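Saturday, quiet lab. Running sequence design on the structure tokens for the scaffold JK sent over.
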């Protein structure tokens, strides 16, 4: 998928919502556990109920790896289902990979080629040779961890390095890497006050924003400081949508929560 195609979907659906598919078997309806593949059946129901309200889905890979081979098979079935039935939807493998050279090449191949995700989240700590292999795939994206929403982000990301905040150095340096036009970035919604400075460095890039809702981030604040002329934001919600109900009406309730966010986004987009 190209950036232009993603922007077209945002305009068409009047939404820049990304739904996180983070399936915990202890939190899904008990009836689903009777099926051969409860993870996939849960995801399928969520996708069927929300695909017209969002522009992206983001499975967190840890929630699949935790269940071994069966979890990986569920992930494969989930991404295949999205690609076959809703190819217009942007897909994100939230894997947070980051290793050097050949290892990164294999990670990139696994997610961007074999599983056929549109993008994968990547950690920048080991530098360009850990990220550039992900950028070598045409019309695929690496989403670089820049300024995250967790409390520990302040341990390193906002500390000074070479006279500037480390996250700013990461952003500036990443722009010099080969195929950097294939970069997107993760910036947490709980860091909304930083978006103005971030946009000075990456004015045109898409930013994946976790932390709205359950983690306390404000959609209005993020949009006020982070939106650009192409919207440039993917707002992720996971728990607040997929676990809106623990009962057999979980998909219906998920749609209700997704619709609330989509309608709020539509109002914001009308003002842009």
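Result came back. Writing it out in full:
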């Amino acid at each position: 998928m190209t950036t232009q195609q993603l922007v077209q979907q945002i305009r068409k659906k009047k939404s820049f919502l990304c739904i996180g598919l983070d399936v915990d078997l202890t939190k899904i309806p008990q009836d689903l556990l009777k099926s051969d593949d409860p993870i996939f059946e849960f995801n399928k129901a969520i996708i069927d109920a929300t695909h017209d309200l969002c522009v992206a889905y983001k499975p967190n890979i840890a929630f699949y790896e935790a269940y071994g081979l069966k979890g990986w098979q569920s992930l494969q079935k989930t991404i295949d289902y999205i690609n076959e039935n809703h190819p217009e939807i942007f897909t994100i493998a939230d894997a947070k990979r980051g290793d050097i050279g050949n290892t990164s090449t294999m990670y990139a191949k696994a997610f961007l080629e074999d599983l056929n995700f549109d993008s994968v989240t990547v950690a920048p700590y080991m530098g360009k040779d850990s990220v550039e292999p992900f950028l070598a795939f045409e019309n695929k994206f690496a989403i670089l961890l820049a300024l995250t929403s967790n409390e520990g982000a302040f341990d390193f990301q906002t500390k000074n390095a070479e006279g500037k905040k480390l996250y700013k150095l990461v952003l500036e340096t990443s722009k010099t890497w080969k195929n950097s036009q294939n970069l997107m970035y993760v910036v947490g919604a709980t860091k909304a006050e930083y978006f103005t400075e971030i946009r000075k460095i990456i004015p045109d890039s898409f930013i994946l924003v976790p932390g709205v809702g359950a983690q306390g981030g404000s959609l209005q604040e993020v949009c006020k400081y982070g939106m650009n002329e192409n919207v440039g934001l993917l707002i992720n919600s996971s728990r607040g949508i997929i676990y809106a109900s623990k009962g057999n009406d979980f998909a219906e309730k998920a749609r209700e929560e997704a619709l609330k966010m989509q309608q709020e986004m539509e109002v914001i987009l009308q003002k842009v």
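Notes for JK: Residues 250-270 form the longest helix (21 residues). The chain has twelve helices and ten strands. Ask whether to fix the surface positions before the next round.
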